Amino acid sequence: RKEVEQDPGPFNVPEGATVAFNCTYSNSASQSFFWYRQDCRKEPKLLMSVYSSGNEDGRFTAQLNRASQYISLLIRDSKLSDSATYLCVVNVRNRDDKIIFGKGTRLHILP
Amino acid sequence: GAGVSQSPRYKVAKRGQDVALRCDPISGHVSLFWYQQALGQGPEFLTYFQNEAQLDKSGLPSDRFFAERPEGSVSTLKIQRTQQEDSAVYLCASSLSPGPYGYTFGSGTRLTVV
Question: Chain B: nearest CA to A6, how far in angstroms?
Fold first, then answer.
């Protein structure tokens, strides 16, 4: 079983709609959680960290459910520029410093 | 420099050829990571340096892969006797201090083995 699992999509969503992605992680000792964004043929870039109490950054909301070992990302009022691959990322701090990526979920925002 | 610099940007190698990929991290960044990203997949961890010490090489797929960071700054990932399955984008990331925060990725080297 992969350490981080995501639905690869693609999600095709009309502009202005709300879209949500989930990701599950297998290691209950995971301590840090992130969403990265990767544009086609570009490097991954940090979108936001995910905190236990949930956190919001503009149109983006991230949630963590430790009991069920999943992380979610909600995008409201989606823009064409939101089209990208969204990578779920975890870190097991007591093991080492590396971050572990999911396969990513592709999002296409349709005009 | 302002960001993580990787070279070459693209590399085409004949099967069996040796290649060397370079990563120039942000000045002063202690941690350096190499990842391999195959088409349609997420980045897969290869190896991690803290300064010049290679603390984790558990992700290197075979003994044909070797990485070094001799002076704690520039790092080189070497692949010997390249195979077609080595075709991927090789990403380097650095961060100022140990821990999962503050990663900055380079643009990657796209390796195609023919």
Answer: 10
* Nearest CB to B100; choose among A43, A44, A91: A91
User: Could you say which residues from 10 to 39 on chain A have a Cβ atom under 8 Å away from some Cβ of chain B?
Assistant: 32, 34
Enter the tokens of residue A109: 């925002």
Q: Which residue on chain A is closest to B97 by alpha carbon? A: A97
Determine the residue of chain A that is closest to B6 in CA distance. Answer: A43
Q: What is the DSSP string of B43-106?
A: -EEEEEEETTEEEE-TT--STTEEEE-TTSS-EEEEESS--GGG-EEEEEEEESSSSSS--EE-
Task: Residue A43: list chain B partners with CB under 8 A.
Answer: 91, 105-108
* pLDDT per residue as tens digits for the range A7-52: 999 999 999 999 999 999 999 888 899 999 999 999 999 999 999 8
Rounded CA gap, A106 and B17, in Å? 34
CB A35 within 8 A of CB A87: yes
Q: What is the pLDDT of residues A69-87, one digit of tens each?
A: 999 999 999 999 999 999 9
Which of B43, B48, B108 is the closest to A101 by Cβ? B43
